[in-house]
Amino acid sequence: MVRTFEELVAEAEAAPVEGWGFDWLRGRATEERPSWGYARLVGDRMAAVEAALDIDTGGGEVLAEVPVPPPLLVATEAWPPNVPVARRNLRPLGATVVRVGDRPPLPFRDATFDLVVSRHPVHTWWDEVARVLRPGGAYLSQQIGPGTVRELSEAILGPLPPPEHRHPGVAVADARAAGLTVVDLREATLRTVFHDIGAVVWFLRKVVWTVPGFTVGRYRDELRRLDERIRAEGPFVAYARRFLIEARRG
């Protein structure tokens, strides 16, 4: 049975978006994964250190995959609904989840951690990363690149100016300015496919920077046009941009 626009949108509006898991999209949207395997890299690094910090942990979903956690494992999260989710997910690892604000400083002493990681941070406060790292410690992060899923943003908002933020080159410059040495930088463009308008609505509710201030009521006409396009032409394709950066404190 073919479901209507209103049915798909209502279902997506009612679905929870807490945490940073995307299981709700299973069978409805897909995204290629970067070749470097961020979760595996984090697991390898965690097994070799004594103290580690995960910044912007979301619901702790990625950190929860670490097979051998270090003796001291801490995660921070700024969005209040994610904090209890992260605490539940990370309890088996013995990790401490700290609710923080969206501005520095981090609530930790200087030179506390051998390893700091972050997947898709909202903002990287490089000076703070450098401060809490021990000499010889490393920061490993998978970050969102410029113009990620821009095709979806423009389907809702119309043509946009060239992206000005999240450029890998800027991250490298900022890391060096904080006194860190960049030892790895990789970039990827990843095909992202939305099979129905419900998947689009749920994604826009969760990944809030794609269409800032998104609500179904505000963009119902644009969503309806996109729904008609998907029904007529097939799944909507966009491209996610990602980069991996690793930097060390001397």
Produce the secondary structure layout.
Layout: H1 5-14, E1 29-31, H2 38-46, E2 51-54, E3 72-77, H3 82-90, E4 96-99, E5 113-119, H4 126-132, E6 133-144, H5 150-157, H6 168-177, E7 180-194, H7 197-206, H8 220-233, E8 236-249
Parallel strand pairs: 2-3, 2-5, 3-4, 5-6
Antiparallel strand pairs: 1-7, 6-8, 7-8
Helix pairs in contact: 1-7
Return the CATH architecture: 3-Layer(aba) Sandwich
Examine the coordinates and then state which fold CATH places here, giving the name of the CATH topology. Rossmann fold
Radius of gyration: 19 Å
**Binned strand content:** 25-35%
Structural class, by secondary structure, is alpha/beta
Number of H- or I-type helical stretches: 8
- Report on the biggest sheet: 8 strands, mixed
User: Termini, distance in Å?
Assistant: 61 Å
CATH superfamily: Vaccinia Virus protein VP39
Sequence stretches where pLDDT stays below 50 over 5 or more residues: none
What is the oligomeric state here? single chain
Q: CATH class, anyone?
A: Alpha Beta
User: What is the number of independent domains?
Assistant: 1
- State the strand order across the main sheet: 1-7-8-6-5-2-3-4
Total beta strand runs: 8
Tell me, briefly, the overall form: globular
Helix content: 25-40%
- Output mean pLDDT: 96
Order of helices and strands: HEHEEHEEHEHHEHHE
Keywords: Methyltransferase, Transferase
Pfam family, one: Methyltransf_11
Domain Methyltransferase type: 53-139
Protein name: Class I SAM-dependent methyltransferase
